[in-house]
Amino acid sequence: MNDFNLSMFSLAGKTVLVTGASRGLGQAIAVGLSKAGATVICSSSKENGTAKTQQMISDNGGEAYCVAADLSDPEAIKAMVEKAFSFTGHIDILVNNGGTISRFPADQYPLDEWQQVINVNLNSVFLMSQLVGKKMLEKQQGKIINIASVLSFTGGITVPAYTASKHGVVGITKALANEWADKNIQVNAIAPGYFRTDNTQALQDNPERNIDIEKRIPAGKWGEPEQLVGAVTFLASKASDYVNGHVLAVDGGWLAR
Closest Cα partner for 160 from 109, 98, 112, 197? Predict the structure, then answer.
């Protein structure tokens, strides 16, 4: 049995594809995984949308590439994944972070908004995992990390599509882990709590909801994007080789209360 050492957390020589890497959690994840030694392919919905993230990685001495795809468009996803493989020839770690949110009361929720959220947050996670997972199966090695949410376990308010999509992300995570764990591919998820990002700006700007949220969080405050990096690095590294189908909450204790 090999003794544990910190090199198990190193991502040197690995290539990571991170969706939704233009800002917020995705940007923090991309920069953090680069600092752990990985080459990072940064994806966003717009061409050159991750140029700032790429520059941040380069400024820290890392290597990064940019790709783009509308995650609601399966053909665009396929083209983006093909391009991503062209940079280093392999993707060792996939982080399905890209997502969207739309807020309406349930009785007024527009069907087109529902479909858009489900396509981006749920359908793309499966397709990305399928496309990259096929290559991982050939190598018998890989890591897939899906970004779920504390709303994978609770209902939320005025976000039924987001809630349904994030419940589905957990289901996909467990289903793929069941099929691929014995192929040396670890599929896990992270459930972030309330972090300061663009997606939560409406809640931050609502004094009543902001106070309610902070009171509910045992840590007493919102999370900052950089506080997610440690959990992602663990699940991306050799240190998590026997972790399969797990959903790791990074929520300041939200789900414990």
Answer: 109
CB-based burial label for 1 (10 Å; 0-12, 13-18, 19+): exposed
Q: Are 29 and 3 in contact (CB under 8 A)?
A: no
Residue keyed to tokens 């992270």: 190
List, for residues 116-164, the tens digit of each pLDDT value. Answer: 999 999 999 999 999 999 999 999 999 999 999 999 999 999 999 999 9
0.85 exceeded by pTM: yes
Tokens 């739309």 sit on residue: 102
Active site residues: 162
d(CA 21, CA 182): 30
Going by their DSSP bridges, the two strands 64-68 and 15-18 should be labelled as: unpaired
With beta carbons less than 8 A apart as the criterion, state whether 186 and 244 touch.
yes
Beta strands in the chain, from DSSP E residues, in sequence order: 15-18, 39-44, 64-68, 93-96, 142-147, 185-192, 247-250
- Each residue of 183-196: pLDDT tens digit? 999 999 999 999 99
Query: Letter for the amino acid at 250?
Result: V
Farthest-apart Cα atoms in the chain, separation: 58
Are 9 and 33 in contact by the 8 Å Cβ rule? The answer is: no
**For 1-10, which contacts have Cβ atoms below 8 Å and span 24 or more sequence positions?**
8/237, 8/238, 8/239, 9/36, 9/233, 9/234, 9/237, 9/238, 9/239, 10/36, 10/37, 10/237, 10/238
Mean residue pLDDT of the chain comes to: 96
